[in-house]
Amino acid sequence: VWGLEPDDVWVCGMDYMQAVASFLHWDGTAWEVHSSGTTGYPRDLWCRSSERCFAVGAMYNEQDEEYGLLLEWDGSSWMEADFDRVAPLSAIWGDGQGEMYVAGSEGTILHFDGSSWQQHDSGTWTPLDEIVGIGPDDIWTIGGHLILHHNRNPD
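^ thats the sequence. predicted structure below, dont judge the formating
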């Protein structure tokens, strides 16, 4: 669940009847269903504005192998974001200014700098379940019995 305002709330999940990633949007009066058309299940979402949201999760390929799902809302539809395939993803956080961080299985950490996604070495294979930041230079990730801290500009 992610809410920007009381009349701008998103919920993500999977429509098991159609086997696609689906989203519900609350506009203050009613829920509206938005289907991504992408097979997979989103686990977390984060919105910068009503016209810019991102969701992360997992999907399966033809060999039944699980990998990361990253979807982007452009204000009218959900579509797959352009990034290198990685392990399944579980959490996303953004600073509101354009930078975002994503955490997932196999210690996966992705960073969006405002123009492209890059993978960062977390130093672990532990699945990372949550990610949150105080700012783009102060990011915290947790998974299992592990807490990771990323400080881009250490004093």
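Residues 11 and 78 are 13 Å apart (CA to CA).
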